[in-house]
Amino acid sequence: MTNNTQPTSLQHIRVLDLTRVLAGPWCTQNLADLGADVIKVERPGVGDDTRSWGPPYAPDAEGKNSSEAAYYLTANRGKRSITLDIATPEGQQVIRHLVMQSDVVIENYKVDQLKKYGLDYASLSALKPDLVYCSITGFGQTGPYASRSGYDFIIQGMGGLMSITGERDELPGGGPQKAGVAITDLMTGMYATIAILAALTHKERTGVGQYIDLALLDVQVAMLANVGSNYLSSGKTPNRWGNAHANIVPYQTFATSDGHIIVAAGNDGQYRQFVLAGGCPELATDERFLTNPQRVELRDTLVPLLAEMVKKKSKAEWLALLEDAGVPCGPINRLDEVFADPQVQARECEIKLPHPTAGNVKLVASPIRMSETPPRYDVAPPLLGQHTDQILHELLGYSADQLAQLREKKVI
C-alpha cells in the first residue's frame, strides 16, 4: 500500500511514549504513521493494559487465537516496545538517558505521579531544555478535579455529549446514549497530535521546547462545536434528537422493508423528489408540508407518513431511487458491509502487516493521504518488550552484561 522507501514527514523525530490504553497511544500511532521513531515504554511482564483486553484476539498463522488483543493492535503499529520498571532508580535513569535521545515525551499518568520519580516536565526539561512534553489526563493539571481519574465514558457524560446523543425522552428507547467508540479518547489523541506537531515547529524555529497540558474534559467541551456555540449564543439547553435533526425535516433514519437508510433532504426540492420517488405525490403538494419550517413544526404528523412510505420498498430500491432523484441518502452499514464497500476498498482503508506471532494482522489504515510523504506501514504493533535490548544497546550503548544485570533486577 505504501512505498516504505519514500521519505516520511517525521523521520527525524523520536518520541518516548509513556502512555497506555487509547488517547495517548492513538496520538503516538499518528506520529509513527508519519514516520517518527516511537519508543513505547511498558511495564515488565504486563505491558499496556489493552494487551489483555480481549477477546477478540488476532488469529495466528494457523487461524487460532494469538496473544495479541485486537484492542491493543488498533493503536500501536509502527512503534518499538521496551519493558522498563520506572519505579526503580535504574529504570528512571534509563528514561533520563532515553529523553536525551528524544524530541518528545508523552505520558498519561495521574497529575504529579511522575514527579516523585523525577520524570515530570520540570525535571526532564532541566536536562533537555528543547524537550516537547505532553501530558494527557482526564481533567488537566489545574482545577478542582485535577486529581481525579478520567475515563472516556464518564467524560462523555460530564462534558455534555450524552445530553445531546440518544433518542428523545418521550419516544421509545429515549434517554442519554454514549457514542459507539471512545470518541473523547480518540479526539484527545488527535488534539495531542496537533499540539505536538505545533510545538515541534516552534522548537525548530526557536530551539525552545514546551509543556502541553491536554484534558479529556476540555476536548469533550470543544467537540460540542456548533451545539456548544448555539447554547452560548441563545442560553437554551439543546434536546436530544436521536437520528433526527432539530432544524431540518426529513433529515433522519428510516426503516425500509429489509434494513435502514438515511435520508438527508436539506431543501424543499429534495423533499418533493423524495416523496415522488416513494410514490406519494400527494405529500409533495400537501400545503402543510411545502416548506421546511412547516415540516419542522409538523414533524410528528409528517414523519409517520414518511415512515409508512419508506417501509414499502427495500434498502437497495430506495438507495437507487433516491440516487437517481438527487436526494442525499445512504445506507447504515454493518462493519462487514463497510469493509466490503467498493469505495472503502478503493481507498485501501484495510491494511495487512506481517506479525511475528499473528501471521498477518489486519488493521485500519490512517485516513491521511499525502503525495510526497505518505504514512508508512512497515512495523506491526510490537510484542511486549520486543525491542528492549535493541534500543538500549543501539541508543544508549548498554552492553550484554548491563542488560543481563537489569533483567536480573527485573528493571527490564
UniProtKB/TrEMBL annotation:
<feature type="region of interest" description="Disordered">
    <location>
        <begin position="45"/>
        <end position="64"/>
    </location>
</feature>
<dbReference type="Pfam" id="PF02515">
    <property type="entry name" value="CoA_transf_3"/>
</dbReference>
<dbReference type="InterPro" id="IPR050483">
    <property type="entry name" value="CoA-transferase_III_domain"/>
</dbReference>
<dbReference type="InterPro" id="IPR023606">
    <property type="entry name" value="CoA-Trfase_III_dom_1_sf"/>
</dbReference>
<dbReference type="InterPro" id="IPR003673">
    <property type="entry name" value="CoA-Trfase_fam_III"/>
</dbReference>
<protein>
    <submittedName>
        <fullName>CoA transferase</fullName>
    </submittedName>
</protein>
<keyword id="KW-0808">Transferase</keyword>
<dbReference type="GO" id="GO:0008410">
    <property type="term" value="F:CoA-transferase activity"/>
</dbReference>
<dbReference type="InterPro" id="IPR044855">
    <property type="entry name" value="CoA-Trfase_III_dom3_sf"/>
</dbReference>
